[in-house]
Amino acid sequence: MIQTLSRPILLTLLLAAAGCTTLRPATDPALAAAHGHPEPSGAVPEAGDGPDGSASSPYADLDHLAPGTLVHVPTGRGVDFDQMMAVVADARVVFVGEMHTNLEDHRAQLQVLEAMQRHHPGQVVVGLEMFTHDAQPELDAWLAGTLSNEDFLRAWYRNWSEDYAYYAAILEFARDNRIPLVALNATREEVRAVSNGSTAPDAADPLDPYHQAYMKAIFGGHSQGGDRYYSVQLLWERTMAANIAAALAAPGNAGRHMVVLAGGGHIQYGFGIPRQLFHMVPVSYATILPITVTLPEARDDLRMDVDLPDLPLPLADFVWSVPFADLEGTRIRLGVMLDTKRDGLWVREVLPGSAAERAGVLAGDQLLRLDGTNLGEMVDLRVVLAGVVAGQRGKLVVARAGQEKELDLPYMTATAQQADAPPEPRR
Prior knowledge:
Elements: E1 9-12, H1 29-34, E2 70-72, E3 77-79, H2 81-88, E4 93-96, H3 103-119, E5 124-132, H4 136-144, H5 149-159, H6 168-176, E6 181-185, H7 188-195, H8 209-218, H9 228-249, E7 257-261, H10 273-280, E8 285-291, E9 303-306, E10 318-321, E11 336-338, E12 345-350, H11 355-359, E13 366-370, E14 373-374, H12 378-386, E15 393-400, E16 403-410, H13 414-420
Parallel strand pairs: 4-7, 4-8, 5-6, 5-7, 8-10
Antiparallel strand pairs: 1-9, 2-3, 2-10, 11-12, 12-13, 13-14, 13-15, 15-16
């Protein structure tokens, strides 16, 4: 299909926008009515059935797919999961996109990985955007059983900001089935060097006009060819493509198939990682893109208006409409703002209604230990919080005025703390 989304539309955007998610219309009944679109019917519209020419492709209207619908984008034909896998399973590389904080995207990724393992038992490798390539020894050690789960969690949070729970089922399936994991991403040092202009990304094909136009729209007009934002985007994608190529060429991997898990923005339209990879080594590949048509009202923070350019490219080989589910209702948080300019964990602000406020944490405290674990860096705190649930209580030791003080900390979700916070004063 040809994607024509030139009008301003409501889009999903997460964190580092371009690479983190697939930018697709997040339609709900009110929004659909505003644009003259009917609510999703569950059927894949045939050619010409779209409500207007601006929002539908010549083959299928991707803006109104019911959850669970899979579409072969180049033809607009609806398929089931087994039919999709019959098409993609023999590709050397299968890219599966994600919105990092949508559990349903990760469930879709796991289904694809399980199916690839059934099609090619013992011949599957997984490539991960979430780890920088210098973390490969830690991935290898965890798979070999020589790195503890706690130390693996530390490695996880040093590499990736999102909760491990989003990815746990995928990673543990790979470990249990002895599926190699490959760290793909650029290191912080490499990103910093490109960001400050001291080096330039060595992209296999840096002058993709569609990619540039798309990134320019995402970054609000600031992503010119030499701009640091676009340069970092190229670095991420070129580095991931290079590490995929190296893994495919590694001894013993000649017959293996790689499943690459990365943000939808690095995969959609075939630019980003797939294009860079093919310029390095022309191998067969397929792209599968989970998309979320409707976001809950409570997650309006994931929406923004972006005027996207017309792109004469299919969004992916297959799109997979999935619902939205996140971990906001289960994430345990202290409810403090930390002073990032000091070594250690120093409290700059205690949020009203938070677990920290209930425990008696004060601005200026240094967090020393939680449940016996030393808190030298943020990673230490995240590892402890990953292992507790709401309703439990912990022992938090802080340094205050030169003395240690033990506090009784209630473990609370971020959602519960927000509900208990006093309303903001009217201005």
